[in-house]
Design a protein that fits this description.
This protein is mainly α and 85 residues long. It has one domain (2-83). The protein has helices spanning 22-35, 40-47, 52-56, 63-83, and strands at residues 2-5, 8-11. Strands 1-2 form a two-stranded antiparallel ribbon. Strand 1 (2-5) and strand 2 (8-11) form a beta hairpin. Helix 1 runs antiparallel to helix 2. The N and C termini lie far apart (61 Å).
């Protein structure tokens, strides 16, 4: 990882896994379980969040989530249209 302090370039050559923090793991857990369809209230309980505003900062809307939601919404509309006479 390369960072800068003032005009000085600092290079940290540790293995990637050493850069992963508990915060990264928590954020990943939240994103993955929301993507799997778990309700936000349940994920909040599991992750220990009590405030939705704080919880929202951990949510990352991935392209996969956007695609699944669009299919869910538009798929339902198409199914309803097929039922109409």
């Amino acid at each position: 990882m390369t960072t800068r302090r003032g005009g000085e370039r600092l290079v940290d050559t540790r293995p990637k896994h050493e850069f992963i923090t508990m915060h990264t793991a928590r954020r990943t857990f939240i994103t993955l379980y929301l993507e799997k369809g778990m309700r936000a209230e349940v994920v909040m309980k599991v992750s220990g969040h009590t405030n939705y505003q704080t919880f929202k900062k951990y949510i990352k809307i991935t392209d996969n989530i956007k695609e699944l939601e669009m299919e869910r919404v538009w798929g339902r509309v198409e199914e309803e249209a097929e039922l109409l006479p």
